[in-house]
Amino acid sequence: MEATVSEKSSPARRFEQDYAAALGRYLSEGGEAPLQQAYELGRLGLTSGEGVLAMALLHHAALAAVLRDAAPPGHSLAREPARTIERAGEFFAEAMSPFEMTHRAIGEANAALRRLNEALEEQVQRIALALHDDAGQLMVAVHLSLDETMREMPPGIKARMSGVKALLSLVEERIRDLSHELRPAMLDHLGLVPAVEFLAANLGQRTGLQIKVESTLSGRLPPQLAIALYRIIQEALANVRRHARATRVRIHLSRRGNTLRCTVSDNGVGFDPAATVRSALPGLGLLGIRERLNALGGTLRIQSGEGRGTRLEITAPLQQVEHADSDSPRRRPSGGA
Amino acid sequence: MGRERPAGHLRSARSPSEGEKSIRVPIQSSADILEARRCGRELAAELGFPAIDRTLVALAISELARNIVLHAEEGEIRIARDERPGSAGIVVTAVDSGPGIGDLRAVLHDGYSASRNLGLGLPGVRRIVDEFDISSKPRHGTTVTVKKWKPR
């Protein structure tokens, strides 16, 4: 199969030939039949994974070939160039029409994903608060009533109850951590950098990863941007932990003008970013990062290669988010409005 | 929307608002799709639809007819004009007496089959027309009615 790399596989060749033949027919005869063929070919191209650019190039190559074959100067196609160009355009629009359906579907899916994201964020915040406030309060009450009961216990049982109390404290701690992971109160109270530092320290403790957080940011970010970046860093770190087999991670946050820049680099095994982007199911983590950035008008660049570690570079505009801020009813810690 | 007749009535052709007879094109094989497209495009041109919308009408007809060939073997595409004061539209009705669709919601959802992952098929049609109505009864067939209005 790899023997003749320069030659296209026969289905692709066949596709080009069919396209050129149908285009030639439409240019010289017009009519519905070649237009239907254009639609069928476009649909075939779409379902077999041709991109929009590939289709545009294919169309122009086919048009050039048809005109070359109709070279004699007296030929009708050459005599009426305006008419020929108009018809070629009609044919092309027909071939691209199935892509219009995909295009609209993606727009719809993106909007739905964005709404879903917002709903999830709200839900997560509710759960985090419930864990922190409700479960936390209950744990305090349990401790108090245990203490009270223990006062009336014989020493032997009391000692065993101390063990139970120690376990309860672990549960309490775990709930606090969980609540923090879900929605760090620190993010609201102290801002992004302390929250990320806390996240890094926690993860480092649990996994042995050496995570360094550097920041030249000053002042507070708009809350929507802060939570999005926090989640992105969280996802990036989760990716590192799951796939990278790294020992060191460096997180760098800076700001230039209106642009916030964040890089997350590791010394792990790396991967082929092109392959991940191309595959039908890109890592959900990367997808999540892209989606969050999309909503912010930000960008993501991935630099990686087998054995070269991975570096994510994220940029996001500071300004836009400040406008969009009003449609996110989020708890403010204090002061403010 | 929602005013169309239930499925399975191959004979009751017109909805009351249509002033003129609808054109009926029987669909049995992909060769018949050509005629349906031609009629749709002609009517769209007659009503003064711009180029993009003429193409979208042909596209909707193709996808609906393709569905008939694929799932019902036999059916019909009806094309009619819907003219009201201040607006002109095309009504395309795809009727078949095929197996019908058990779960309409699933079929209107992207990802139900490989091609729908790309937003083709019925979900795709829904996105390129202005009104979309579907009714189906298992074992009695399916009726899909779409309208495309001439943009002002």
SSE topology:
The complex is a heterodimer of chains A (337) and B (152).
Chain A: H1 10-29, H2 32-47, H3 52-69, H4 76-79, H5 81-151, H6 155-182, H7 185-189, H8 192-207, E1 210-215, H9 223-244, E2 248-256, E3 259-266, H10 273-278, H11 284-296, E4 299-304, E5 310-317, H12 318-324
Parallel strand pairs in A: 1-2
Antiparallel strand pairs in A: 2-3, 3-5, 4-5
Helix pairs in contact in A: 1-2, 1-3, 1-5, 2-5, 3-5, 5-6, 8-9, 9-11
Chain B: E1 23-27, H1 30-46, H2 51-72, E2 75-84, E3 87-96, H3 104-107, H4 121-128, E4 131-137, E5 141-149
Antiparallel strand pairs in B: 1-2, 2-3, 3-5, 4-5
Please give a structural write-up.
The complex is a heterodimer of chains A (337) and B (152). The longest helix of chain A has 71 residues. Chain A has a 5-stranded mixed beta sheet. Chain A is elongated and about 110 Å long. The N terminus and C terminus of chain A are likely disordered. In chain A, helix 1 runs antiparallel to helix 2, helix 3 packs antiparallel against helix 5 and helix 8 runs parallel beside helix 9. Helix content of chain A is 67%, strand content 11%. By secondary structure, chain A is of the alpha+beta class. Chain A is built from 12 helices and 5 strands. With 152 residues, chain B is α+β, with helices and mostly antiparallel strands. In chain B, helix 1 packs antiparallel against helix 2 and helix 2 packs antiparallel against helix 4. At the A-B interface, helix 2 and helix 5 of A face helix 1, helix 2 and helix 4 of B.
